[in-house]
Amino acid sequence: MALKQVNGTLSQGDMDQIVNSLQEAEAQLPFLINLTPEERKTGIKLGEGSQSFAEKTVDYVQRHPQLLPSYFTMDDFMDEYYTWVHLQELRRRFAELFEGTDDTLMAVGSSLMRKLLKVYANVQDAQEVTNISGIDTIYEDLRQRFERNASNEEEISIDEEGLESITDNEVEENASNDDIGIDDEGLA
Questions:
Q1: Residue 26: CB partners within 8 Å, gap ≥ 6?
Q2: What is the mean pLDDT of residues 130-149?
Q3: Distance (Å, whole) CA 108 – CA 7
């Protein structure tokens, strides 16, 4: 099944602006850290499931400051709370952006791979019937993608829908994507 068509392009100018914006965002977050797997396991978790608890506790402390332990300052307590709130929002937005980027990357990659395979099929045909200068070199270079090892040489056959079958010196009908290393994310 073909993936959704992507209607848009990403120019180098657009890419430069996005990278600039990301660098500016990173500069606004100089305090970000990297935890080890052990540190992630040992820390007390305050996830979205505890958000209501956090909000209620902050509300009570703001209305009754005497509930705050004496070794906390209200400013530090509230700064940490709002940092957590803002990081949660950023995390959600980044997750949406990542998911959209990842899905679009997969769709564009799938569409592009279909086109690349059609070009490869044209190279195969040209290699067999024309005298284009360097066509054998081009064919040998491109076909390396589909070789598993030196003893198992494979060729690919393309139809209008894209990948149709794999051949070991002759066409095998209805070969699966696994035969050439295509997985759910594209070529392996």
A1: 32
A2: 86
A3: 10
